[in-house]
């Protein structure tokens, strides 16, 4: 068989392996039915915050990497220069499948990378990791595919796993978040996609997911690509561990920065007293709204710097959005019901029977393909030689007795 004719067979074999590995060899999970938050107590993500300790952060930015194969311009130094000029305390370089260590000795440096190379942009951001996870799936992912990847990325409890821009393309559906677990945050605010519906889906299903906002900059030389969305984190010192812990606890909020906005407002006070939520911002807002289960608006205020809401018995979670006349919007993390113990992820278990059945099917498919492709790839002469070498006739096996 000539080399030109061999290429399609090899290519199709490679594609078939990718498909079988993704849809047949991936573990299948048994997902629990969505259960809203419950409990007699209310979790306050802003407990013990200091209004003087808010720092501005961007965790998602790309530079030129992999010899230009991925979408990104500039260097880590270019990213640092731009974000330092805007008084960001933390600014990460999060290239695809690569941790940039240019500023590893800088206080507040956080190793980061964006995971995922599937065609539907099912991406995740990993903060704090020491090595890259290469596992991923190329084609549109099933719910079990997505969960398996999240399990791999969250294997180190020290790291923060963020689901990136879920509303971008069809990387994630809002309904996925009724079941997915083992992640810390959702990148709700991203210039390429605002994913509030996905966030509310997770919260309505009892998943403790906190908000992140990022520029997701790919061209640091374009003025329209940075300073648009950010995350504010409350920490006493700008150190990696402090920032990661604050993100896991929800001591943060997401912000859409209004065009031309200069003095950005911050959260001054936030309290939960029995069933009453109250907070105060540093600037008067055009509108303050409270949102609850399934994204339902519960209450709203206009032209005020403070607001309060009395949690009803039927409220599983409550989150607030604050809007300003210059276009700036702040998304606070939710207050939700819990039993007073440590916040944990919803457990998810492998369905061993279903996994075994699908893997057997995958083996059958690959075996059938090999039986079909082998005669096409191997020459007739080689097949005859192999046939003579490994074929045993009854006469050879049972010589005539004399």
How would you describe the overall organization of this protein?
With 402 residues, the protein is of the alpha+beta class. It folds into 2 domains: 55 residues; 235 residues, TIM Barrel. Helices cover 25% and strands 26% of the residues. It has 8 helices and 19 strands. Strands 2, 3, 4, 11, 12, 13, 14, 15, 16, 17 and 18 form an 11-stranded mixed β-sheet that branches. β14 and β15 form a beta hairpin. The chain is globular. The protein starts with a helix and ends in a 5-residue tail after the last helix. The C terminus is likely disordered.
Core attributes:
TIM Barrel, 25% helix, 6-stranded mixed beta sheet, 19 strands, disordered C terminus, 402 residues, single chain, globular
CATH architecture of the largest domain: Alpha-Beta Barrel
List segments where confidence is low: pLDDT < 50 over at least 5 consecutive residues.
Answer: 396-402
Helix content: 25-40%
Strand content is 25-35%
CATH superfamily of the largest domain: Metal-dependent hydrolases
Number of helices: 8
User: What form results from the Cα inertia axes?
Assistant: globular
């Amino acid at each position: 068989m000539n080399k030109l004719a061999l290429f399609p067979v090899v290519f199709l074999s490679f594609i078939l392996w990718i498909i079988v590995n993704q849809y047949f060899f991936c573990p299948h999970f048994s997902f629990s039915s969505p259960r809203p938050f419950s409990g007699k107590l209310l979790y306050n993500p802003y407990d013990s915050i200091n209004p003087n300790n808010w720092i501005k952060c961007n965790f998602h930015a790309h530079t030129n990497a992999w010899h230009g194969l991925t979408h990104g311009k500039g260097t880590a130094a270019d990213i640092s220069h731009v974000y330092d000029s805007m008084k960001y305390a933390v600014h990460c370089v999060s290239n695809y499948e690569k941790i940039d260590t240019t500023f590893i000795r800088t206080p507040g440096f956080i190793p980061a990378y964006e995971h995922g190379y599937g065609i539907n942009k099912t991406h995740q951001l990993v903060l704090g990791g020491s090595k890259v996870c290469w596992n991923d799936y190329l084609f549109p992912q099933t719910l079990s595919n997505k969960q398996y990847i999240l399990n791999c990325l969250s294997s180190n409890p020290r790291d923060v796993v963020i689901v990136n821009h879920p509303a971008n393309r069809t990387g994630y559906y809002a309904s996925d978040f009724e079941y997915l677990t083992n992640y810390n945050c959702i990148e709700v605010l991203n210039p390429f996609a605002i994913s509030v519906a996905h966030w509310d889906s997770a919260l309505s299903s009892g998943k403790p997911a906190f908000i992140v906002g990022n520029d997701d900059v790919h061209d640091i030389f374009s003025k329209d690509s940075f300073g648009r969305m950010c995350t504010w984190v409350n920490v006493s010192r700008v150190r990696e561990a402090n920032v990661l812990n604050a993100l896991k606890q929800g001591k943060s909020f997401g912000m859409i920065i209004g065009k031309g906005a200069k003095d950005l407002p911050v959260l001054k006070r936030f309290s939960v007293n029995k069933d009453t939520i109250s907070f105060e911002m540093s600037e008067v807002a055009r509108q303050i709204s409270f949102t609850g289960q399934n994204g339902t608006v519960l209450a709203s205020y206009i032209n005020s710097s403070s607001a309060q809401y009395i949690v009803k018995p039927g409220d599983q979670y409550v989150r607030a959005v604050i809007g300003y006349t210059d276009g700036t919007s702040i998304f606070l993390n939710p207050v939700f019901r819990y039993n007073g113990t440590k916040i944990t992820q919803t457990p998810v278990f492998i369905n061993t029977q279903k996994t075994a059945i699908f893997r057997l099917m995958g083996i059958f498919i690959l075996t059938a393909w090999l039986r079909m492709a082998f005669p096409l790839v191997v020459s007739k002469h080689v097949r005859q030689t192999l046939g003579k070498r490994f074929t045993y006739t009854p006469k050879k096996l049972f010589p005539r007795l004399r």
